[in-house]
Amino acid sequence: MSDKLFIFDTTLRDGEQSPGASMTREEKVRIARNLEKMGVDVIEAGFPIASVGDFEAVQAVANTIKESTICGLARALDKDIDRAGEALKGANSGRIHTFIATSPIHMERKLRMSPEQVVEQAVRAVKRARQFTDDVEFSAEDAGRSELDFLCRIFEAVIAAGATTLNVPDTVGYNLPQQFGETIRLLREKMTNADKAVFSVHCHNDLGLAVANSLTAVLNGARQVECTINGLGERAGNASLEEVVMAVKTRRDLFSCNVDHIDTTQIVPASRLVSGITGFAVQPNKAIVGANAFAHESGIHQDGVLKHRETYEIMRAEDVGWSANRMVMGKHSGRNAFKTRMQELGIEFDAEESLNEAFGRFKELADKKHEIYDEDLQSLASEATAEQMVNERYKLVSLKVCSETGETPEACITLAIDGEEHKLCAQGSGPVDATFKAIESLARSGTELQLYSVNNITSGTDSQGEVTVRLEKAGRIVNGQGADTDIVIASAKAYLNGINKVLIPEARLKPQGADV
Ligand code: KIV
Ligand code: ZN
Predict the structure, then answer these.
(1) Is the CB of 383 under 6 A from ligand 1?
(2) Does the C-beta of 46 come closer than 6 Å to ligand 1?
(3) How far is the CA of 141 from the centre of ligand 1 (A)?
(4) Residue-range definition of the domain harbouring residue 461
(5) Ligand 1, atom 5: nearest CA belongs to which residue?
(6) In a domain, 306, yes or no
(7) Less crowded by CB within 10 Å, the N or C end of the chain?
């Protein structure tokens, strides 16, 4: 059995299924570049049949990334598989990941198919996928609630049809570690051709056990873990890549496989990039990538760490990419230096015009803030792509806010709406509230604010504030983001970004939501 644990990242597919986390093609390529740099084995870039946008994103990632295998998801349907095959044409190494549900409840209630029909369809799908690539993964959706004998049967059949990876998803996050580990062990023991494929696991975090379940599966012979940066994903999310990788690395004494090919110093940059792009902030106490993950508050701990670091630290912060913010640029940095640093961060400009525009923004920022860090550059790029992605019906022209002790805060905003300027003043319980009220009175978006959060991008009071708003309209949820050294302006930008996004029609299939 291989001593390498394959890391399959599905941030761009399952991660994107979190409400409000949709990413543009350019954002996906940027994250994929980071994952490639990290040494991730497989990048699941999307579900090509879901929409034209998904198809083009998978295609763009496949055409750009050379070191990692690029994977496209497909239901066990000819049209899905053909679309995935088409999207992956330009890949150096492409994988089709096809799936069908195998639990009694899914087969009876969702698919309305007999187990025989399900096996037949799975086999047909794998054979069709093999016409496009030799690298075919088959997933038994809801394997966590499927019968073991049926799993053995369908897995044996798809291996015979050409599947090279067998994925065991705990789709609804129902399993407990010991039970899930047993499933993997028994499958490997009972199946007649188990040695002909790599066993993979894909755990959801509904009970907070996704990482524990994945690791127990690895201890029982799984050799691929499907995971996401920051544990992003449908509902409570997927197993977090950083936790899986660091657990296997830190407890190498317990695992018979390793993740030595992963450059763990890329973890924190990847986490920042994903949270910046999706607007899903990382909780401060999140393992590995939370702001407090390596902060020792208590005197006893601090004393111990100062005397001998390993008294309280099991990992080194720098090994996962927590280095002091690097000042990379400043007011006097030129256009070439800017372009080069952006390229190093995986940010490419498709046209001279967009480079000039981004450089203009950089100069504006450098005037307000003397030290520009990588995180600032990432945020600048996210803001630019967020604006490109939406056809910006509402644009911020200017904002004046008065806030004084004992007085009601007031915001006067000028917006360009479809190119025409409109001005309005509104009062609110605070400067942000007044600003949002002024915007809403002008824009009349009819959205409901579900979440408002501010994070500082770097440290220090001159840091940019990055604001995320989550807006809901008629059941559709979008995240809007904005960054500025002035958090009220950042809030206005985020709100406008959100309402601009709400206006874009979204016609997208969700894999688990769609009937086969
Ligand atoms: O959770 C799940 O079952 C999935 C499959 C498509 C692998 O995401
Ligand atoms: Zn999933």
Answers:
(1) no
(2) no
(3) 6
(4) 391-508
(5) 141
(6) no
(7) N
